[in-house]
Amino acid sequence: MKDRYILAFETSCDETSVAVLKNEKELLSNVIASQIDSHKRFGGVVPEVASRHHVEVITACIEEALAEAGISDKEVTAVAVTYGPGLVGALLVGLAAAKSFAWAHQLPLIPVNHMAGHLMAAQSVTDLKFPLLALLVSGGHTELVYVSQAGDYKIVGETRDDAVGEAYDKIGRVMGLSYPAGREIDQLAHQGQDVYDFPRAMIKEDNLEFSFSGLKSAFINLYHNADQRGEELSQADLAASFQAAVLDILLAKTKKALVQYPVESLVVAGGVAANQGLRERLAAELGQHLEIIIPPLRLCGDNAGMIAYASVSEWNNGNVAGLDLNAKPSLAFEALEE
Ligand code: KG4
Ligand code: ZN
């Protein structure tokens, strides 16, 4: 059989990325152009700036991805692209590039949900076995997803307010850390102690929902009150206490989901899956009971490689789009009907 190459595009937020996946399994290239430095001074992603950056670098990313993969544009077999969720202007740049490439080379265009991408990045670690449960934690999402088979994603629990990564970034801003703050808080947390008693919202409630806005507010209040009194709080202890609360919540709800949906593998993915504290606790508390699959660090943040992996089951399931494919900024998985 002829070799198959999927060319994948990801531009939903502040990373412009193009990847080449060979024969469904082998990621030959995964070029990621980050714009973080342009957004840092604003303390978050500025949508217009993001779109402009994508336009500036997308062509170079395609060329680099093909060159690194060692293939020509004529060898590509299919094109995959993130069509949501994300910033509409940012998504449109990737869509325009993907559609143009697909049209010029008369190739199928495979639409991919960004969150399916995060989840399926785990396919790079091992051949996923279904059914499985996934904890998806990123800057925009916190959700527990039941996957009965490849390509069938159903939400069983999610956050009512802030996403966990968003909470990290917001408290990081208050602490004077640069955006995105998750990684730095994670590092600080390892140097401190859990001495401030932050709330663990809904942890005892019998549902699979999360809430992080109360924790964020409690943190900000403590910080500001201390500031007004001229008191200096330990950044490391603050980070450790915040992270302990976050991890208690994530672990409790994941365990609860595993009782309700007994599966043999748990995928943990999304930007926050890079968190070392989370990885340690998952291994210690759940590692003996089931297989925990976490994508390697470079596939945890936004990248097109994960979109390529997720596109495989979409393509197998006949999910191919026309050139009228539009961006869906609030695209979401459906809830699982009991
Ligand atoms: O998945 P991602 O790259 O982008 C979205 O789709 O949102 O996730 C980015 C988020 C940011 O909020 C960032 O602070 C967080 O992931 N993050 C972390 C860590 N590394 C990145 N949060 C906690 N601990 C980390 N080590
Ligand atoms: Zn993401």
From TrEMBL:
HAMAP family: TsaD (MF_01445). SUPFAM superfamilies: Actin-like ATPase domain. Keywords: Acyltransferase, Cytoplasm, Iron, Metal-binding, Transferase, tRNA processing. Its EC number is 2.3.1.234. Binds 1 Fe(2+) ion per subunit. Belongs to the KAE1 / TsaD family. InterPro entries: ATPase_NBD (IPR043129), Gcp-like_dom (IPR000905), KAE1/TsaD (IPR017861), Peptidase_M22_CS (IPR017860), TsaD (IPR022450). This is tRNA N6-adenosine threonylcarbamoyltransferase. It holds the Pfam family TsaD. It is an enzyme of class 2 (transferase). Required for the formation of a threonylcarbamoyl group on adenosine at position 37 (t(6)A37) in tRNAs that read codons beginning with adenine. Is involved in the transfer of the threonylcarbamoyl moiety of threonylcarbamoyl-AMP (TC-AMP) to the N6 group of A37, together with TsaE and TsaB. TsaD likely plays a direct catalytic role in this reaction. Its main location: cytoplasm. Its cofactor is Fe(2+). Fe cation binds at H114, H118, D302. Gene3D superfamilies: 3.30.420.40. It is found in: Cytoplasm. Substrate binds at L136, V137, S138, G139, G140, D169, G182, D186, N275. It comes from the Bacteria. Residues 26-309 form the Gcp-like domain. Signal peptide: none annotated.
